[in-house]
Amino acid sequence: MFKGVGAKVHNFNFRFLAAAFLTLNVAFLGACGGGTVVNGSDETAATVNGRPIKMQEVERAVKQQAQGQESKLSPLELAGARLQVLQSLIEQEVMYQKAEKEGTVPTDDEVTVELNKQKTASGKSADQIDKEMRDAGYTEADVRDQLKKSLAIQKLNDRITGKVGQPSDSEIEAFYNGNKEAFVKRKGVKLAAIVIDPTSSGEGDSTIDQASAMQKYNDLVSKLKAGQDFAQLARENSEDQSRFQGGDLGYLAEADLRQAFGEQTAAALMSQVQIGGLATAQSQGKLFILKVQDKSDRDEPLTLETPGVRQQVIDSLNNNRKQLLAASYQAIAMNEARIENFLAKKVVDNPNELSGARPAAAANTATPSNTAANTAPANTNAASNTNATKPASANTPVAKPVANAPAKPANVK
Question: Which of 41, 127, 168, 300 suits 185 as a labelling partner, its CA being 20 to 30 A distant?
């Protein structure tokens, strides 16, 4: 009837791998130049219970988060970025050492299985993966080590949060009654899509230009007219992460439809295309073959007896408790750890040595919005991710395209 939180999809992308591991925390693991090296990359930036974290790790992560723009940052901005990154690495190391003590470190075979799974899920060739890995400054050993840590902390998290029991009926009812506004099926449609991208983005693309995209589009429309299964064709042909769910985009409220595909397309999907019907649209230069799986022409309040609602309440309560438990465990682990932050000490000892002036070439250029210097500190405090009062919306889509130049959909007959 509606889809809440969609299945998590692992995207094997080395471009964002460093940033992803920087933000690892025990709750999350329960759905991102020149002039950056300080006194040599082999210098120890910090130690956790005597185990070193090297500046090489810090610099590599800063470079990833700054997306190659770190040479445009001032020494002061770089210092701030390094400290943010280092704090995240320290917290990750603390939790990994806890995982070692608790015996949740995976075997080499388990790491290999997960690595191969992520490579396959990426839809990329071995050459693409190797190039992306080299560009990010990683070796196969680096990737395996990071994946080993993430799996170890995941297992530790599962063990810790496994203590959380099921909520009582009275708790479920109280939570629902206090959050009724979140349990409304909004006027909208449930969509599935096959996405065709004329550009070669490396995300499982088989089309590289407009001509090949149109050829693929016509071929898929012909197969759909012949009665072939939409979900299977989406899994095999869609050039989008939604292919992992058979093209399922989830339930999009009318406002979300307008944002994703524009006014004309939204209106057509709401009023012209029937359930089970097909339409086409264009957004962000991509072609969409859409299937309307369900629709509602008005807002409908949902009750605890509505299929899926009671379980959504249970999941919200359990997730909130698990996040709080995980955050508390991590806070204790951080308090118990013996941490020496040499990089922070260097800043404290030499506060006036860091210039706030950016390099001349970048002086008149705004710092990129997604550089490490302007990104909020990587959050490894599990409590900050806790939505303690609101459940996930009943209308949350699995994936939602963002439109630039939508076109009115044409019914596929």
Answer: 168
Cα 195 from Cα 240, distance rounded (Å): 6
Distance separating the N- and C-terminal Cα atoms of the chain: 26
Whichever domain contains 238, its CATH number is 3.10.50.40
Task: Say how far apart CA 268 and CA 273 lie, in whole Å.
Answer: 7
In tens, the pLDDT along 126-171 reads: 888 888 888 777 888 989 999 999 999 999 999 999 999 999 999 9
**Which run of H or of E encompasses 195?**
strand 188-196
Q: Where does 262-407 have alpha helices with state H? A: 263-271, 309-336, 342-349
- Which residue range(s) make up the domain with 288? 184-301+396-411
State how beta strands 44-48 and 339-341 pair: antiparallel
297 and 321 assigned to the same domain? no
Q: Smallest Cα–Cα separation from 48: which of 89, 7, 108? A: 89
Number of domain units in the chain: 2
Sign of CA dihedral 20, 23, 28, 32: negative
pLDDT at 296 over 50: yes
Is residue 64 a contact partner of residue 17, using CB atoms and an 8 Å limit?
yes
Q: How many CB atoms lie within 10 A of CB 21?
A: 22
Record the pTM: 0.63
* Alpha carbons 106 and 198: distance in angstroms, whole number: 40
